[in-house]
Amino acid sequence: MAKMTRFHEIGGPEVLRYEDVTVGDPGAGQVRLQQGAVALNFADTYFRTGLYPAPLPSGIGSDACGTVTAVGAGVTQFKVGDRVTYTGAHNTLGAYSTERLIDASALIRLPDEISFETAAAITMRGLTAAYLMRRIYDFKGGETILLHAAAGGVGLLVSQWARLQGLTVIGTVSSDAKAEVARAHGCNHTINYSHEDVAARVREITDGEGVSVVYDSVGKDTFEGSLNSLKRRGLMICVGTASGMIPPFNPQILAMKGSLFLTRPASADYLADPADRARLADELFGHVVAGRIRVDISQRYELADAAQAHRDLESRKIIGSAILTV
């Protein structure tokens, strides 16, 4: 019988339950997937805690890959035996499972050269890195960026992609071990925020100018420092809230700090168009297959151990990408 991790009430990792489920035949526009590996993303915890609302009981996880085992009426772009991957939010919720039904429109064809484990590690993170680097800011080359959580799963991919585009990368980390990993994946400079003033170090590294773009996945704890790290008319991209939501602020602060720009992108908007999503995926997979972007999986958990995986996520024990094995 198929297995699925889901939650019947919001709360800590202990609310996650590993349960038997019945997976029926796919309906119109759907396929049935035998899953090969499942991504472990910090955003998964937002659903479990209720920060991202979901009807209860709810599956969890939005990012996985596998093999098509059945297709529903009207599905012509995929057939039984195709290898696919997917990422999303509410529309793909339920990825923590051994087998599932899913809308075919959410699927991305997976090249034979990309293993299921690699796909689970990079589909969400890699497509996030792709739209962050290719769709939000028109880099000319030679610019400097500040990347928070540089040793995280997305951070390691963004830093490698940034180097491919001729950018200088300043990455923030919480330990010397993470600094070493970040430098090995493309960071030119690292700042240990546990004992260094990030904005002051950025100004020192950039000869007082500041950076063109800040990628901030931390949120509340780094917001002011991120703004203070930008050069005049620089762009802050808020890509997560690992430390908590950014409190309300007066937009006048953006003018006072140099006519700054601020955006909070969502994957659901940047990956909504299937054709553009496929183009970004092709570019991502091409870099991985060619060895230009390296994917390191630092931790593997069995699907039944999702609660422990969430504890490790929230305590910042995971460096790089982690996955759930099926």
UniProtKB/TrEMBL annotation:
Protein name (Swiss-Prot/TrEMBL): Quinone oxidoreductase
Please tell me whether the keyword NADP is annotated for this protein. Answer: yes
Q: Which residues form the Enoyl reductase (ER) domain?
A: 11-324
Q: Which CDD domains match?
A: QOR2
* Any Pfam family: ADH_zinc_N
Q: Name one GO molecular function term.
A: quinone reductase (NADPH) activity
Could you tell me which species this protein originates from?
Diaphorobacter aerolatus
Q: One GO CC annotation, please? A: cytosol
Coiled-coil ranges per UniProt: none
Which keywords, in A-to-Z order, does the entry hold?
NADP, Oxidoreductase
Q: Does the keyword NADP apply?
A: yes
